[in-house]
Amino acid sequence: MAEQGSERIRIEAPPDECLAVALDFERYPEWARDVKQVTVIDRDAEGRGAHVEYRAAGLGKSFRYTLEYDYSGLPDSFSWKLVEGEGMRKLDGTYRFEADGDSTRVHYDLLVDLSIPIPGLIKRRAAGMIMGTALKELKKAVEGRDR
User: Fold this and answer.
1) Do 79 and 97 meet the contact criterion of CB atoms below 8 Å apart?
2) I want to staple 135 with a disulfide (CB 3.0 to 4.6 A). Which of 9, 76, 79, 84 is the partner?
3) What is the structure's pLDDT at 55?
4) Which pTM value belongs to this model?
5) CA 147 – CA 25 distance, rounded (Å)
6) Sign of the torsion formed by the C-alpha atoms of 86, 45, 107 and 25
7) CA 11 to CA 51: how far, in whole Å?
8) What percentage of the chain has pLDDT greater than the value 70?
9) How far is Cα 108 from Cα 79, in angstroms, rounded to an integer?
10) Measuring CA to CA, which residue among 74, 44, 68 is closest to residue 54?
């Protein structure tokens, strides 16, 4: 069964800076501790990653998965859907960027369905951990940039 969750965080930077870091997939291994490798398989007409393959560590294992990105909501949001992945049936999500004065409220919605047998409580905790960690690490990466 899929687990759905939503988290948000305030980042002390304008939305365009948050978006720039979130879209720079190839640099994720520099700031997202669970992401070990990223390969942009193909790009859209604007040069953004259309299909991106990740190798990430989690639950004591290494997983490979490929996401397909949808940028129709830019500059306010972008989303992704799982194309294929080891140990998962769904890993679909959305980042939303909401201006809040000189800062940004970043919302992260995620739908996770792991194919490995794990109790629902652990799945919910894993989804929450993925979102919370991703947002905290995004905040640190954005606020730590030279402006």
Assistant:
1) no
2) 9
3) 94
4) 0.89
5) 20
6) positive
7) 27
8) 87
9) 10
10) 68
